[in-house]
Amino acid sequence: MQADSGPAPSAPPQPGGAAGGAHVLPPEFVQALRELGLAGDEVVHGEPLVGGVSSDIWRIETAQGTYCAKRALPKLRVAADWRAPIARNAYEARWMQVAAQAVPGSAPRVLGQHEALGVLVMQWLAPQEHALWKSQLRDGRVDAAFARALGDTLGRIHAHAAARPQLAARFAADAIFHDIRLEPYLLATAARHRPAAGALQRLAAATAATRCSLVHGDVSPKNILVGPRGPVLLDAECAWWGDPAFDLAFCLNHLLLKGLWRPSAAAALLGAFDALAAAYLARVDWEPRAALERRAAALLPALLLARVDGKSPVEYLTQEAERELVRRVALPLLQAAPARLAPVRRAWAAAVQCGAPS
After folding, report:
1. In the 8-state DSSP scheme, what is residue 263?
2. DSSP 112
3. pTM for this model (two decimals)
4. Domain 131-355 CATH assignment equals 3.30.360.10
5. Which of these, 200, 184, 230, 189, lies nearest to 53 by C-alpha position?
6. Mean pLDDT of all residues in the chain?
7. Domain over 14-123 is classified CATH 3.40.50.620
8. Which of 100, 117, 138 is nearest to 254 (CA)?
9. What CA–CA distance (Å, rounded) separates 13 from 255?
10. Helix (H) / strand (E) containing 40
11. Span 82-132, pLDDT tens digits
């Protein structure tokens, strides 16, 4: 299974660890596996997966099988001082279980979760059969059919959860969502853009107050596998009962930004944007579609701006001219508060076509 890369972007995870191939598995993992009944008294072998910034993640082999195990970190491995409660590990396990009920195969199977030790154990998904979507997009391989399947899957998960409001009590993670999403993305960006601060603060407050369904919180290409039977979503550490429009906007944001990363694929990425959005909105049955689209459209320029000026800037926009283009598009849209996704898409398409750095 590919390791997730946490709330901040990173290179696709790869095996790695100590020099000379010697890997010492943290004792918390061994204890958790044994107490969960996934390992006996045998020596447990593991290999760390590099690329994660929010968790320690290992590929572990026991006499019973091969697993992927992760343990949340209290301080994320990013330049900014970014901390988050390790209890998010439990919410991630619960999100995966709900997603698997809604759309079988859309999340790794949870094999055990040791809340006291903060260790989550999942099935191992072989990289040979589960390509990382971010890697495909990086290589300019954009499949609108996959984007459509992802939009449909995400919409089905949200619809399934919205129809079961009793789930809300199991995802009362307001403080975690604030610490991992609202503060580092919207509020930290507001501190850097004083004229837009009011709009960003209002968006943060409105998002925090909207409670419709189960939110993943990090629907990013780095956390999505292209599996043999469709999309598989990883890294639900931000799981929260709140506004599903956040998930839609968060993923669409990446499809726009990657048009700057790979200009030759910009048109195809806009096609993927359209396919994902249409498939998702077709599944919205828990509220008027126009209401959800309005919230997603308002969040989208805020998230564009956050990925260049918040605590988690995308690593692939390395030129100041690229970051300035994002600001030129995002700031006017933030003030305009579009009610539909189409005006955001049009403004971005025009800017990338006419103003992308050479």
Report:
1. G
2. E
3. 0.88
4. no
5. 184
6. 88
7. no
8. 138
9. 20
10. none
11. 455 566 788 999 999 999 999 999 999 999 988 888 889 999 998 999 999
